[in-house]
Amino acid sequence: MLKQAYDFKSESDCLYKILENLPETDLDSKTLFKEWSFNSIIRHLHVWNYAANISLLNVREWGKFSDKLKNNFNNGKTLNDFEKNFSNNLKGKKLLNKWKSLYSEITEKFKIEDPKKRVKWIGPDMSVISSISARHMETWAHGQAIFDSLGIRRKNEDRILNIVIIGNNTFNWSYKVNKLDIPKQIPYLKLTSPSGEIWEFNDKKNINYIEGMAEDFCQVVTQVRNIQDVKLTVKGSIAEEWMSLAQCFAGKAQTPPKPGTRKINLNK
Asked: At what angle do helices 38-57 and 3-19 cross, to 10 degrees?
């Protein structure tokens, strides 16, 4: 059984539990992520969970989905426009329940798949294990904006190891997407997991290194926090540069949030 599928469901369940009892009108609340509402975030997660599902099951359906997305952008529309149109502008409790139903369904499908099987995506194909790990990463990252808006200090678990791995594995991508030369050696990582376990990556002898809490590293590589707003120890010019532009998700280069602009709402 694919552990990453269960991690994805656990992360989704964690987010669902803080939303399920909110008044319907609260789901229109805006967050500090590009002023996306709770509805916008859940709709985004739901649409791309759907995309991951059809990429696993039906290449023809994936092609139709991909063509609709391309046509949307060719017509000068935004990603939000596409997601609203594709979901028939579903929102509120109906959206929340449909999202929960689908993420539960795809967990059951992904958990029994060959982790190395290749599936379609926007850009290069990816493995099944990368696909479901990416869904976990997106759920965790976008969920942070909702936790922050509600004034909830998130209690992470060691399943965020999946996000650390994606963050580390996308070192080259972070440079490539920003059209920069890729350094020859990736900085050494020494991170403390939520349970207190030490996670280490890359060459210990590298003079460039990053040390601190795994949660802080995840927040930087997913661009939900500026490097200045976390407590990572960052040494060396390459480590500093990486943390200033890290991007573990696909798409065009994105600018990390400015210092102090993504934070928990302490007035809640």
From this structure: 150
Taking the C-alpha atoms of residue 192 and residue 67, their distance in angstroms, rounded to an integer, is 42
Q: Give me the domain span that covers residue 35.
A: 3-155
Backbone φ, ψ for residue 179 (5° rounding): 55, 45
CATH number for the domain that contains residue 31: 1.20.120.450
The count of domains in the chain is 2
pLDDT along the chain (268 residues), means of 10: 97 98 96 96 97 91 92 92 93 97 97 95 90 98 98 97 98 97 97 98 97 98 98 98 96 94 91
Same domain, 9 and 134: yes
The whole-angstrom separation of Cα 252 and Cα 135 is 18
Rounded distance, CA 206 to CA 234, Å? Answer: 12
pLDDT for res 41: 98
Predicted TM-score (pTM) of this structure: 0.96
Is 39 found in the same domain as 113?
Answer: yes
| Any domain includes 125 | yes
CA dihedral sign of residues 40, 44, 50, 51: positive
Radius of gyration of the CA atoms of the chain, in A: 18
Establish how many alpha carbons lie within 13 A of residue 268's alpha carbon, considering only the half-sphere containing its beta carbon: 11
Size (the chain), residues? 268
Last residue of some domain: 114, 140, 155? 155
Rounded Cα gap, residues 118 and 121, in angstroms: 10
